Every structure is written in C-alpha cells, then in structure tokens.
Amino acid sequence: MANSLYFDFRCNPENDSTTDAMWCSRVGIPVTNLDSWKASNPAEMEKILAIRRSRYANEMIQIDAALLKKAKAGDARSIQLAWARFENWSPKIEEEASKKTGGRNKTLAELIAEDAG
Predict the structure, then answer these.
(1) Is the dihedral of CA 27, 31, 36, 39 positive or negative?
(2) What are the DSSP calls for 58-114, one per residue?
(3) Is the CB of residue 97 less than 8 Å from the CB of residue 89?
(4) Are 31 and 21 in contact (CB under 8 A)?
(5) Residues 50, 80 share a domain
(6) Cα separation, 55 vs 79, whole angstroms
(7) Residue 106 lies in a domain
C-alpha cells in the first residue's frame, strides 16, 4: 500500500474535501486495503492528526480570538460556544453530570477536591 502517499495526503487539511474512497480511486488502491492499514497503524493516524493540527493552529488562534470578541460583546451563541470550546461545557454534559449528582451541581470546592484526589 502507498502508506507514505496517504500519510502526506491526509496531513494536509486542504485535502479534506477528498474522501478516502476518492483518494483510493485516484491512486488505484482498494478502500478495504486502506481501511486495514488505518486499523493496524493507530500510531500513524495519531501522527497525521498531530501534523494536521500544527498546520491549522494559527487559524485556530484567529478563530478563537473572533469567538471571544463576539462573546465579550454579549452574543449568546458565542458565549455558549466559548464555554464549549475552552471549558468542555455543553448543556448535554451539564445534564449528564447533574444526573450523576442527583440533580445538584457540584460546587467549585467539590470540583477542586476531585482534581486533587
């Protein structure tokens, strides 16, 4: 399999509009071969992800700055997105956590104690 070709191709975020099946068709490799290679090479897939993230990191900084600007201006959707982005918060996560605690949200002291313990 042309794993180095796939590796280089998938590391580039500009190729996101091309599916794996499209890529396989282009290079003449059965999709099942690629799927097998991906399944047996999780470390390579992690490397691809790390390289991709490094390539769009500067753009994410700009997106984060724009999001924070709108949130600080009071845009409710941006505030919710900022909480989700920076604090891993969402209404669903909050609801599930609330179910675990019997409907009572944990205090800051309880959360700090959990992290320390």
Answers:
(1) positive
(2) HHHHHHHHHHHHHHHTT-HHHHHHHHHHHH---HHHHHHHHHHTTT-PPPHHHHHHH
(3) no
(4) yes
(5) no
(6) 27
(7) yes
Q: Within a domain: residue 81?
A: yes
What parts of the chain have a pLDDT lower than 70? 1-2, 103-108, 117
**Crossing angle (nearest 10°) for helices 20-27 and 3-11:** 140
Half-sphere exposure of residue 20, counting CA atoms within 13 Å on the CB side?
Answer: 14
Provide the domain limits for residue 17: 1-57
Is this model's pTM higher than 0.85 or not? no
Evaluated on CA atoms 40, 43, 48, 49, the torsion sign reads: positive
